[in-house]
Amino acid sequence: MVMFKKSEIYDILYLNLDFTFWSDAKQWGYTVGFGLEEGFLSQNFKFFTLTKHWLGRIQEVVKGKLFRQVWCEVVRNEIDDTLGNWLESNINIRVAIIFESLNYSSEEIDLNPGLLTRRKIVLDRLKYFTHCIVVDEYDCEYLNSNNIIKAFWWPVAIPSRFVMTSIDNRPENKAIFLGSIYGSRVNYINCIPKDRLILNKSTSLFLPLLFNINQIIAYYISKYYPFNVEKFMILNIRILRFLRRKEFEAYLKSISNYNILINLPSFVKAFPGRVIEGMSVGCTVLSNRINDRPWANSNFVDNESIFYYNNEVDFLEIFRKLYTNDTSSVKNKAINNVIKFHTIEKRFSDFYLWLK
User: Fold this and answer.
1) Alpha-carbon distance 135 to 78, whole Å?
2) What pairs with residue 309 in β-bridges?
3) Most exposed: 119, 151, 197, 308, by fewest CB within 10 Å?
4) Which CATH homologous superfamily contains domain 160-201+256-341?
5) Residue 80: is it exposed, middle or buried by C-beta count within 10 angstroms (0-12/13-18/19+)?
């Protein structure tokens, strides 16, 4: 008698985004990557995670597994017809993840020409999906109003276990900025006296090295190993998850040493993870308002949980006040706001209420 192995059933197939080298990967934070796994856990979901190196061998590594949903980053992961058709044929609920904006000004495209085709590429990939989560409210409204896909607005959130419950004194009364410096950001950075600002402080030299080694090995195995790669893939993801969590913990510990966290204008028309992350560890956040994004700006109340600036003159004036004044009450209100509205657990709870 022929015996058939029963398929293993998962709630989620998670096609996470990650990179081969830390120089690229460091811009893609834990809260928009492996942090989503903590949201799956909050829903008691059983999940199976892959990253982009393994997408070309997806049918091999998920053989014998069935999935109720797939969550897939669709801006930078390569979603070709083969993968898209396979997802469409095998999984009923297919959630596209869009954690970047799809519309850019001509000035932004001049700074980064690759942005010119992003919108077209992503819209084409959405044909394989049933729902999407979107960080930019403009894109969310566009997708819904044009009946392209059912879109849910998803401001970046943080797992609740990383949120401080009390404010400690900052060891250094300095500001920190974490991010690339381009365009108008240069002028803002130059406003601040150099002895009061820390730029892109490295949290570890060892973790990025391990990251690169792990990912380079994964790349070559996924491309050239002729036999079943499932065991290699599982080990790669476990190491990658561990390194990402350790790096995130070190990063939060590092920024918690500083009094002020600065957020500057970005290609993405939404608040990046650093805003929520800074609030979560007791930093006072000084940020630009996001042009034409009222939903995003209403997430925080000016002078209560955040300090908004409108231009370079405004920025420097507010910075000087923050540098000399006690902002403990604002920090506490920001933490309470994060706990109430901006945890991964809250975001997943709201999403599944919407999905029903």
Assistant:
1) 20
2) 288
3) 119
4) Glycogen Phosphorylase B; (3.40.50.2000)
5) exposed
Question: At residue 37, what is the residue type?
Answer: E
**pLDDT tens, 177-191?**
998 999 999 999 999
According to CATH, the topology of domain 8-157+344-355 is Rossmann fold (3.40.50)
Whole-number Å distance between alpha carbons of 307 and 293: 17
Query: CA 280 to CA 278: how far, in whole Å?
Result: 5
Answer whether 8-157+344-355 and 160-201+256-341 agree in fold: yes
- How many whole angstroms separate alpha carbon 73 and alpha carbon 85? 16
Residue 169 has pLDDT above 80, yes or no: no
Q: What is the pLDDT of residue 166?
A: 79
pTM over 0.90, yes/no: yes
> 153: which strand partners?
134
Rounded to an integer, what distance in angstroms lies between the CA atom of residue 346 and that of residue 348?
A: 6
**Among the listed residues 137, 135, 29, 116, the one whose alpha carbon sits nearest the alpha carbon of residue 74:** 135
At 244, which helix (H) or strand (E)?
helix 230-255
Q: Residue 225 has what DSSP assignment?
A: -
Where do the structural domains in the chain lie, given as residue ranges?
8-157+344-355, 160-201+256-341, 206-249
CA distance 356 to 353: 5
**What is the C-alpha separation between 77 and 55, in angstroms, rounded?**
9
